[in-house]
Design a protein that fits this description.
Elements (H helix, E strand, L loop, with lengths): L9 E5 L3 H8 L4 E5 L2 H6 L5 H9 L7 E4 L5 H12 L5 E6 L9 H9 L4 E6 L2 H10 L6 E5 L1 H6 L4 H11 L6 E5 L6 H9 L3 E5 H4 L9 H18 L5
Parallel strand pairs: 1-2, 1-8, 2-3, 3-4, 4-5, 5-6, 6-7, 7-8
Helix pairs in contact: 6-8
């Protein structure tokens, strides 16, 4: 089994809690960060702009993605241009469609043409990947974020889809594939095996990194001890 420092896939921390983001930012194996409106809402963020500027006052040397949140493409464009102006390390996340199912391709092509670094998000099908890669600017860095974890939630194996996505993105060398919404630590190694360039990982999964390569007999004993300890703490009797 590879060690974390032997992996080629870049690990991006996914979150919106400032303390957690700062903790992960300081780790050398974290190569970038992402967030989204749902994570920000859960973290209690009420002012998007203030939060972003606060984070960017510290994180200046690693890529970080902030997402537009309008459902109107004209307003998305305005938000995208402002977000892009916040820093040279900022990538603007644009969802693959709005809530009406209308695709973002025209907006992506326009923004890419203006040299905006983009992160196209919420992608789940190969046709979406092909269509968005076709409109990205081959001279501007970008990310194509495929929600492999959500694909897995439907009972589908995401690995074949992600492998095909790696092949599709070869048409645009300046664009990198993100394995988004992983469900377990194993996904990091799966992403690395297929040549996926980036995986976004939440802090609760990143905390399991200490288990990589851990002896399974020891892990079995740890589990038994946990069950025993918790039964004792609960004062169970039969």
């Amino acid at each position: 089994m590879k060690k974390i420092n032997e992996l080629k896939v870049k690990i991006f921390a996914d979150g919106a809690d400032k303390a957690g983001m700062m903790e992960m930012y300081k780790k050398p194996f974290i190569k970038g960060l992402t967030t989204n409106p749902t994570l920000m809402n859960k973290a209690g963020i009420t002012d998007y702009r203030i939060f972003a500027h606060d984070i960017l006052s510290i994180i200046k040397d690693k890529p970080i993605s902030f997402e537009v949140f309008s459902d109107d493409f004209k307003e998305m464009e305005r938000q995208a241009l402002e977000i892009a102006s916040w820093g040279s390390n900022v990538y603007v996340k644009i969802p693959i469609t709005n809530t009406k199912g209308e695709t973002c391709y025209s907006l992506v092509k326009k923004m890419a043409g203006q040299k905006v670094k983009l992160n196209i998000t919420a992608i789940m099908t190969l046709s979406q990947i092909k269509d968005v890669v076709a409109v990205l600017n081959s001279n501007v860095p970008s990310y194509v974020s495929v929600f492999a974890g959500r694909i897995a939630d439907t009972g589908r194996d995401p690995v074949p889809i992600m492998s095909a996505a790696v092949d599709i993105l070869r048409a645009n060398p300046s664009s990198e594939l993100i394995w988004a919404s992983p469900r377990e630590l194993l996904n990091i190694f799966q992403a690395d095996d297929i040549g996926c360039q980036v995986i976004t990982v939440t802090n609760n999964i990143l905390k399991k990194l200490s288990l990589v390569g851990y002896d399974l007999d020891e892990y079995s004993l740890d589990t038994v001890k946990m069950f025993y300890r918790d039964a004792q703490l609960a004062n169970f009797e039969i």
